[in-house]
Amino acid sequence: MKDALIRFLKSFELLTPDEINIIADHTNLKTFPKGTILLEEGDISKECYSVIQGCVREYYIVDGIEKTTAFFTEGQPVNSFTSGINGTAAKHYLECVEESILTVSDQQLEQEMCQRIPRLELIIRQEVERNNGLLQDQLAAYITSSPEQRFIKLLEEKPGLIGRVPQHQIASYLGVTPESLSRIKKRVFSKERSL
Fold first, then answer.
1. What is the DSSP string of 115-155?
2. Spatial CA neighbour of 54 closest among 78, 74, 35
3. What is the dihedral of CA 92, 28, 136, 88, to 10 degrees?
4. 31 DSSP β-pair partners
5. Cα dist. 188→52, 142, 165, 176 in Å?
6. pLDDT tens digits, 80-129
7. Which DSSP category does 45 fall into?
8. Contact 71, 158 (CB under 8 A)
């Protein structure tokens, strides 16, 4: 697991090899079984995660129906900023869709690491800003595109996701019924075959 963590940390080009080793030595890695709920609606988020291996789904329950809003896979942070920073109850759930190896951190550990590596605070801020920009772009793309366009974009950005998670969760994420997703997949894949 530590090798996977070091590969993940190397993706942050600003970190030196010594800094990577310090972080790896002080990072909590944990394996979570498929179906583990990391955060429930109503809880106050006290931990944040990064996916080393696996997949975590964010969803809301609206009128008794699960609405998937995000999938986090290898190399992505998983946080509930609104709940964690404001100390308010989470409005969503975080669930491991498959067995997952995650880093597990909290505010105290983050502060300790920033004391050990003072420039880490800047690196974290830059990473948060980058992720916020990506989320802003994803939201705009979702609002301005059709379900078929959303499916094609999902295939481009996370091609392996389709085989990793249940199709009803993909359908929910795209804002369609499972039956509509089947029709969309048929159209998209038949277009690809005809090219």
1. HHSTTHHHHHHHHHHHHHHHHHHHHHHHHHS-HHHHHHHHH
2. 74
3. 40
4. 101
5. 31, 18, 19, 15
6. 988 888 889 999 999 999 999 999 998 898 899 999 998 888 888 888 89
7. P
8. yes
